[in-house]
Write a structure and sequence with these properties.
Blueprint: H1 3-18, H2 25-35, H3 42-53, H4 59-81, E1 90-91, E2 94-95, H5 97-101, H6 103-124, H7 132-143, H8 149-155, H9 163-185, H10 194-214, H11 217-220, H12 226-230, H13 235-257, H14 265-278
Antiparallel strand pairs: 1-2
Helix pairs in contact: 1-4, 2-6, 3-4, 3-9, 3-14, 4-6, 4-9, 6-7, 7-9, 8-9, 9-10, 10-13
């Protein structure tokens, strides 16, 4: 079974647990709407790739961990789209959760997906309970304060924001968590994988800034030009298109250079370059790193 199918199966299982008899039907529907159909599933695929590179000794657990990472990402999108933040009318090519189900339900959906992510982590460590604590620790750091995605969202409410600090928290933190939990799920230490995730996360955000400049809302599947409209840091605004592309190339090169020694190091390097190019329109493809 390929990575995408494994992720979807794990997500379906997690949502089925959350939507068991007795759960408010509107909440069940809204949670499913927030998760399916998904986007590129970049973060959970990264989790599975790192687990595989580390010699994945428990694929079922890796799937659960990957699903937990995607649930957290989906939660962040639901909250990010709400009127108090981006006020985005659509996401992944369809109306955003609060446009369909209302703001109060959207808030609860984001909260419920975060809790479900931690419940899914617990299920991942059923066989190897010694892995639960490092899994929870890595995920907690990726989403909370001081440097997780919640902190990244909070930086948008500050009068001044440093671009690199903002990118590391808003995007890089969950990428770092995705890499670290992939290693832990496979029985390897997570901390050596932090640098890879941080570089990839910042690279993804720079690529997203580039896409925001050169692509339409229809092609993006979400509103274009939000950073400019809301006065937020954006790599293309600060560095120009050429500078942003150069920054992206530097970050991808950094990422492949910090892959820790592991059985799948060489294939993982090739996969990272392929994924980096998938972030961009074809005319901006990076050269081999």
């Amino acid at each position: 079974m390929d990575a995408s199918a494994r992720i979807e199966r794990a997500l379906e299982g997690a949502l089925a647990e959350a939507g068991a008899e007795g759960c408010p039907p509107r909440l069940v529907d809204a949670m499913s709407y927030a998760v399916f159909p998904g986007g590129a599933r970049i973060r959970p695929r990264l989790t599975l790739a790192v687990a595989w590179a580390c010699g994945d000794d428990d694929p079922a657990a890796s799937e659960q961990v990957a699903a937990a990472i995607e649930l957290l990402h989906c939660a962040s999108l639901v909250h990010d789209d709400m009127p108090c933040f981006d006020d985005a009318d659509f996401r992944r090519g369809k109306p955003s959760v609060h446009k369909v189900f209302g703001e109060s339900t959207a808030l609860l959906v984001g909260d419920a997906l975060i809790v479900l992510a931690f419940e899914t982590l617990e299920r991942a460590a059923t066989k190897r309970t010694e892995r639960l604590a490092p899994l929870v620790r890595a995920v907690g750091r990726a989403i909370g304060a001081p440097h997780g995605i919640i902190a990244g969202q909070a930086w948008e409410r500050e009068p001044t924001i440093d671009l690199a600090t903002y990118h590391r928290a808003k995007t890089g933190a969950l990428f770092a968590g995705a890499c670290m939990v992939g290693a832990v799920a496979a029985g390897s230490p997570g901390e050596p994988w932090r640098a890879l995730g941080e570089a990839l996360g910042e690279a993804f955000q720079v690529a997203d800034d580039i896409r925001d400049m050169v692509m339409s809302s229809e092609d993006l599947g979400k509103p274009a030009g939000k950073d400019a409209a809301l006065g937020r840091p954006n790599a293309t605004h600060q560095l120009g298109l050429t500078g942003a592309l150069a920054r992206l190339d530097t970050l991808v090169r950094r990422a492949v250079s910090v892959i820790p020694p592991c059985p799948g190091q060489i294939p993982l390097r090739s996969l990272i370059l392929k994924e980096a190019n998938s972030f961009l329109p074809a005319e901006f493809a990076l050269s081999a790193a």
